[in-house]
# Entry
Amino acid sequence: MREAFSNFDVDTVAAFDASDIGRLLEDERIIRNRRKVISIIANAQATVELRNDPTLASRGRLESGFQRSCGRTGRAIIRPTTRSIFQRKSPNR
# Structure
């Protein structure tokens, strides 16, 4: 799964487009569910957005920022497993 999602590099995954989604849906190494793939990409985009938000500079505030951002932007809630993967990969951690 790591390989399919560029080793979970948040910036790379956040930039995935329709062709990447198509590639992932054909990849037999992962669960090929369109909603899950799109959710992982959206979570990466939310992580980048929050990482770049100066009001969430500290890691302690990042957690609450995920919830606030989801409500503000209408994104799906970022699940703990995905959130922790991208937080570990985030350079501002």
